[in-house]
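Example 3.
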Amino acid sequence: MRITTRDPNNVKTSLTAAKYSHSLTFMPSLNDVAELSGYSIATVSRVINGSDKVTASTRESVEKAMKSLGYLPSRVARRLRQKGGLRHLLGVILPNIQNPFNAEIARGIEDIAYANRFAVILCNSDDKYEKEKFYLDVMRAESVDGVILPPNQESAAAVLEVIETGMPVVLVDRAIRGVQVDTVEVDNVIGAKAATDHLIQLGHTRIAMIAGPDSISNSRQRKRGFEKAFKNANLPIDPELVRTGDYTQDTGRKLAADLLDLPSRPTAIFASNNFMALGALAAIHKRNLRIPEDVALIGFDDLPWAETLDPPLSVIRQPAYEVGQTAAQLLLDRLSNPELPISKLRLSPELILRKSC
Amino acid sequence: MRITTRDPNNVKTSLTAAKYSHSLTFMPSLNDVAELSGYSIATVSRVINGSDKVTASTRESVEKAMKSLGYLPSRVARRLRQKGGLRHLLGVILPNIQNPFNAEIARGIEDIAYANRFAVILCNSDDKYEKEKFYLDVMRAESVDGVILPPNQESAAAVLEVIETGMPVVLVDRAIRGVQVDTVEVDNVIGAKAATDHLIQLGHTRIAMIAGPDSISNSRQRKRGFEKAFKNANLPIDPELVRTGDYTQDTGRKLAADLLDLPSRPTAIFASNNFMALGALAAIHKRNLRIPEDVALIGFDDLPWAETLDPPLSVIRQPAYEVGQTAAQLLLDRLSNPELPISKLRLSPELILRKSC
DNA sequence: TTGAAAGCGCTAACAA
DNA sequence: TTGTTAGCGCTTTCAA
């Protein structure tokens, strides 16, 4: 059933439309306030910036003038002039805000930003170099206070360049090796090892991994954790059972399908991120296989609705919100004190057992 | 099981740290390029802006100078100066990016923005007036080209004020009555009616609705659609079965629980948004009720993983990505031609039947 | 085709 | 305590 009400004719003309054409956005300036209040722009500026070198009565009349004009200081002009000070603007570049993991990070960042009266320019890169480069240039051109992003192999050089210019950068979720820059990661090796350990303890030996791209540091780390668990248990890895996807639901589904159609199929699957786990789940369902009896499944990244999936999905939970908060706080700390030593933080993941393994 | 590796001591000092303290972000300016190339800043500016009044040879040497300096024009200075032109910056204020519905809208907006070389300041308001107001001020102070947001009852006045200043605004998902401003909505009445109709056709008469807050236009519209379906079918609404939540998973769970614990419980539940549907799902599961045999469930808003829920959730799907795209395109059109008539668009929702009803 | 100079809205140094 | 002024990086007349 499809209901169609989209109505291209439902377009009305109005008086308001005419207004737009004449009114360039009206913004009173310092000058306007100065004129109205009878003081100089310097004094008005002092009032705005809460200088204590203004008489109470002066402050009062200036503030009255500001209010009556609806004056709002231009962040643009301020940013242009004030070279040393804070611009109260952060740049954040994430692969895709539609991934709940990224949304959580973004939210963590923004909550800290808001608490400190910072606004955030948020961009989606899809891990595409072209977009990353464009947005990195935007950040410089907007002269934001600093940038938070998860680098990948391809973008690393561009990120390094930005760091060279002196722009504070905080890496989240992914790292660049051998570079001294503030970084907030999750311990992916330990997380992946914990997931695999659990599968092994359950008696599985034919365990498949749907891994992420090698160009992403956390993906390599998760692979390492997987291998570590096997080595620890003195178990051999069947290379046929390790597949590399691209962190999308689609490859998760396809690779799980391939795995499931193997002559001797795995009894357990570890999916290296949330989307691929969801894809694997769909593929298993499609084959009417029981979870965990026929195939056990565990994913990396929690989902707010993992509890309500069929079956409730066991996962390695990343503290994504905290990652975002920590990164933002690190950046703000760096801004207020550039001499701070570099921090490389690694937050802990958590094994959450539900019903899928 | 909890693995803890957070290591506050894993903090290293380095040469890079020292660098920060001295290097104020280095940004070559027009002046630097002018000096290096031997031309005036005016000429350099012309080269940047692709003026045709420059000799090929001049352009060439200026471009060489720009490249060798890694020059990037400051969007800030440009914005300050150029009163008429485009700033290539959009403001977007959404309630919460962690809601996949909002994430989809945001993505739709950004894809159009990126295609036109615009960057986006994205903010979460939590539908809190204080945050909305702060971010609205930020948009003005940053002199963005325009703002996209879903208004609510409380913020409407502030939004109107912004519109008064001449700043282009596009409303998404929610409308303000009696105001001529570009708006992209979804037909909530028809959507909610379709959901309720379907439940009625299935033979249900005790149908509960978990509605959203009355302060949000789409919530009121969905209630209207629900009532319309009842009236159409000549069925009475049991007021006890209509509960008002706040669009969060938590109230969805609580209100569903109340409903389910009623002496004569409803046989079907219509949840007015995605989060409340998820909450209701959890509440039903907790009581070990079968879906749809004991209680049928339908939600508003699709979820990328609705298929994999237990059971796969039937929903009214909103074309959220298209809503975002359309809004952004509307805004860009308005920027390039302010005389354009006001558009009030209403996109179509879609009934997607899966297994929950 | 190029350059000189004014000025966008603001901060900050200096003077009064 | 207040005002004058220079200048942030750029665009845009106006002259040359």
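Chain A touches chain B through 105 residues (CB under 8 Å). Residues 39-43, 46, 53-55, 58, 77, 79-83 of chain A lie near DNA strand D (CB under 10 Å from a C1').
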